[in-house]
Amino acid sequence: MEPTRSDRIFGRFKRLSDLKAGRHKGRFYRNSLMLILLIASIPGLITGIVMYQQVVGRMETEFNQMHQNQIENRARNVDDQLAYLEMNLSHWAFEPRFGNALRTLDFVYYFNETQEIVTTLYVLQGSHPLIKSAQLYLQEPKPILFNRDYTELNDEAKVQAYDRYLAMGNHVYWTDWVSSINSDTEPSTNDSPLHTDAGNALVLVHKIPGESINPFGALIITLDNEKVASLLKTLTPYDEGLTFLMDQEGNTLVTGNPGTAEETSAFEQQLKDEVALHAGSRSFLFRYEDQTYSVSYGSLSRIDSDWTYVSAAPLTSVTSPVKLVSKIIVIASAGSLILGLLLSWFASRRIYSPVARMLHLLTPGRNETTPTDAKLDEFELLEQQWNELTSRSVTAHRQLQEQLPHLRDSFVLQLVQGHLYAYNEHDLQQRMRNLGFELEGQQFLLVQMYFTGYEQLQGRFGSQDTGLVTFAAVNITQEVAKNVFKQISVMNFHDLSSAMLVIAPQDEPVKSQALLWGQELVEVIGRTLKMKVTLMVSRPAASLQELPGRFVEMEQAVAYRSVEEGSQILDLEDEACFRRNEAASYPLGLERELLQAVRLGKQTEAERVLEQFMSEITRTGSTEFQVQQMMLQLLGSVQHMMLQTGVTPYKLFGGYNMYEQLSGIREPVQMRQWMMNEVFIPYIQEVEVRSQEPLKLVVERTMLYIDTHYRSDISLENCADEEQMTPYALSKAFKQVSGINFIDYLTRVRMDAAKQLLRETTMKINDVAAAVGYQHSYFNRIFKKQEGVTPSQFRDQWFGQ
Which SMART domains match (predicted)? Predict the structure, then answer.
């Protein structure tokens, strides 16, 4: 029995309640709970005991050594950062764009090269987080500075300041002297690259061209002092202490000191003296103002000099927490054990909560656990459900992909036929993009195909197989079009006609391509289906909203195609394709002859004259429009003749609009067949029925007489005398109207009455025979012949049921 909606809701609620209450925990929950309890119970106690047994002095030594190793690793990181800057700058300095061509380049005239240099400096500036700014100074052909833009230096003081970069140091060197465009300070005559009177940041200079011994410019990278200080601060990983960088002469380049300048100066000087005393030891302990510092120092080899880093960290900051922590761990280990048990239990429930919710979401219909599910833990069950959902998703996706072509063609059909007039261009394009079309920068072209010559296929296809033939032609059209156009949508009208929407780039000659493709399609259809094709190509459209108008134009223009046998390719913009002979006249003589044959009911004669009529109006030069107009005129003449003979066309044709049906037929052969089968033959049959109306009344009176007097002795001669006819005429009329002989009808009436008496009364068989107009012996014989059993057996079978 299918569960009701309320039963399913109650089952889901019960399952969720059971999961929350913990009555249906799986193996994963139990195993994870025990594992968490075990893990939480042991580490605290072991850690406290081990920490307490360690000697504080040994810990100080070990931590100090660890600190030294940490400082060395971080120092290598600083060295790598600076080495990367040197290598990166050298890479850029040897770029061809910074070569000798800059000596003679007109930067104002060659604006693109100037912009490229500025962009390169931006890239160089962003290549490393320590870089604050990147500049290019050119001494020749005239003092020019590239920073955030192109600047010609006219101030002599500023020119001398930047010329100093070319005079100082080697080809590549470091300095802490920064020249500012806004500085009015006179340049110093000191050529030492480091520690000059205007220094406030580290600067890396590479003269250009990189391979030249006579440089005329320099790439100048200024580092961000705050970021460099932050980088040095990593050498002292504690809030207290001091870190600085000094050159070979002992001058401080950068410091990461968090204190004031006065405090730093005295402490820094003593550290420098201690470093000089402990040369070669790499690390030592230094006491200053009642604090012991762990001092580490080392050398940083730069491209033009060697620098020394010095890091001093208070030893108490390294080791003092260990003493307190070792005691706290031992004291708190017991409490942490109990707390760990409680937290692990709580954590296990919290861990299981999302699993329970996931189970509820993926298995909403499982009110009870099946034997198969009982063997699975939660994650195995989730995996099972996930695989099932994935399989369904793949199936749904495959079904969607199978239906997508039909959705595309259906949407395009509605668009072309004008059913989507309420949508604007943006909405139409968005919906087509959702269906997989690419519309950016595209143009649209409509091609309409009419497949003619179907009557020649009657041996292969029946009269009702037009839809099948159209389907085959549409498939062939799609296959041929895929080899020429990238985006198409073929519409099947199921009436030996179809249309195709072509979407192509705007710069392609899509119309000429369509005309060439049409020739190929005509050959393939003729070779495969033995049919002819009338193919019409519209004007290209720039928007989707223009397509319904193009389609209407083609529907109207196709009426002017030639009805001659053979394939045609028509260009809607080529008027010569539709210029036909207008001299065709209406054959009135044949019309009168045809109407006369139809009025007299001569079907064979009417077929012959109609064929002559069609041959006359479809002679060379006639268009489909002309043929349709003449056939419509003929239909009007036929209906007029019907009214004159007392036949109402509306009743004869069942209320159908015959003019509309005829207007939908395009081939002359089909027009002729339709006119004969749907108009002439029904009229001829109606005339024949009306001519037989008196005989029908005679037969109906005779049948009524039989129904009333079947108990008496009735014969064909008696009934003929009643109607004042010969027995032969009455017999022929009876057979023609009722479809059954006179004696057979009389026998059937008497047998029906006899069976009723046998079922509903207890009359003897002799009495039943007399009641229906038969003698006993003849009645038994005729009853068995008609029913297959005797009257007695019939009665026994009836009551035996």
Answer: HTH_ARAC
d(CA 730, CA 631): 44
* Separation between Cα atoms, residue 623 and residue 558, nearest integer Å: 9
Domain 401-578 shares a fold with domain 693-800: no
Residue 390, Cβ neighbours under 10 Å: how many?
10
For residue 193, CA distances in Å to 84, 90, 196, 211, 224 come to 20, 18, 7, 21, 18
Q: Which residues are 490's β-sheet partners? A: 500
> pLDDT tens across 573-589, in order?
776 665 555 545 777 77
The CA distance from 220 to 98, in Å, is 13
pLDDT tens digit sequence for 78-132: 888 788 887 887 887 788 778 777 887 877 777 788 888 888 888 888 888 888 8
Name the DSSP class of 623: B
Which fold, 401-578? Alpha-Beta Plaits (3.30.70)
Which residues, listed in sequence order, are joined to residue 219 by a DSSP beta bridge?
Answer: 136, 206
Collapsing DSSP to helix, strand or coil, 625 comes out as helix
Round the average pLDDT of the chain to a whole number and report it.
77
* Biggest alpha carbon–alpha carbon distance for the chain: 160
Q: Which residue has the tokens 């309640």?
A: 17
Contact 219, 88 (CB under 8 A): no
Local structure of 790: helix, strand or coil: coil
**283 vs 275: CA distance, rounded Å:** 9
**Cβ pair 276, 286 in contact under 8 A:** no
Question: 1.10.10.60, 3.40.50.300, 3.90.110.10, 2.60.40.10: which CATH number matches 693-800?
Answer: 1.10.10.60
Helix (H) or strand (E) holding 643: helix 624-644
> First vs last Cα of the chain: how many Å apart?
37
Could you write out the DSSP letters of every residue in 71-84? HHHHHHHHHHHHHH
3-state SS, residue 114: helix
Sequence spans of domains, the chain: 94-226, 401-578, 588-690, 693-800
Q: Do the beta carbons of residue 170 and residue 191 sit within 8 Å?
A: no
Amino acid at 15: R
Residues 76, 77, 80, 81, CA torsion sign:
negative
Instruction: Supply the pLDDT for residue 13.
Output: 44
CATH code that applies to domain 94-226:
3.30.450
Q: In the chain, what percentage of residues exceed pLDDT 70?
A: 77
Distances from the Cα of 462 to the Cαs of 7, 124, 458, 469, 707, in angstroms? 56, 80, 6, 10, 46
Residue pLDDT, tens place only, 644-698:
677 788 778 877 888 888 877 777 888 888 888 888 888 888 777 666 667 778 8
Task: Output phi, psi for 114, to 5 deg.
Answer: -65, -45
Average pLDDT over residues 270-296: 77
* Rounded to 5°, angle at Cα 189 from 186 and 194: 100
Percent of the chain past pLDDT 90, that is, above it, reads 4
What does the pLDDT look like over 431-483, one tens digit per residue? 889 888 998 999 999 998 888 877 766 656 655 677 888 888 899 998 998 88
- Is residue 224 within 8 A of residue 130, CB to CB? The reply is yes
CA 352, 353, 358, 364: dihedral to nearest 10 degrees? 110
Q: What is the 3-state secondary structure (H, E, C) of 596-616?
A: HHHHCCCHHHHHHHHHHHHHH
